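Researcher: Next sequence.
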Amino acid sequence: MKITDVRVRKMTKDGKMKAIVSITIDDEFVVHDIKVIDGERGLFIAMPSRKASDGEYKDIAHPINTETRTSIQNLILEAYEKALEEDDEQPIE
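Model: Next structure:
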């Protein structure tokens, strides 16, 4: 499995959620609504989820092992940091 595209939509309001991300896998499958969250121990990702009838949130799509989750998280956080740097490089008019 190879992540072939990462699209980052940064949040403009203050808060713990910093961005919403979509990833493309093998140029054939897209996962939308992955969140970049600023937690107590730094940035992490939260996979797409929905609220269950018991009030808890359950992931809709997620990696099935830690190695894959770490790989996806690293790629997403690198893309997020790059998007922040690109904003810093924009000239002020």
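Model: The two ends are 42 Å apart (CA to CA). Residues 1-87 form a domain with the Arylsulfatase, C-terminal domain fold (CATH 3.30.1120.40).
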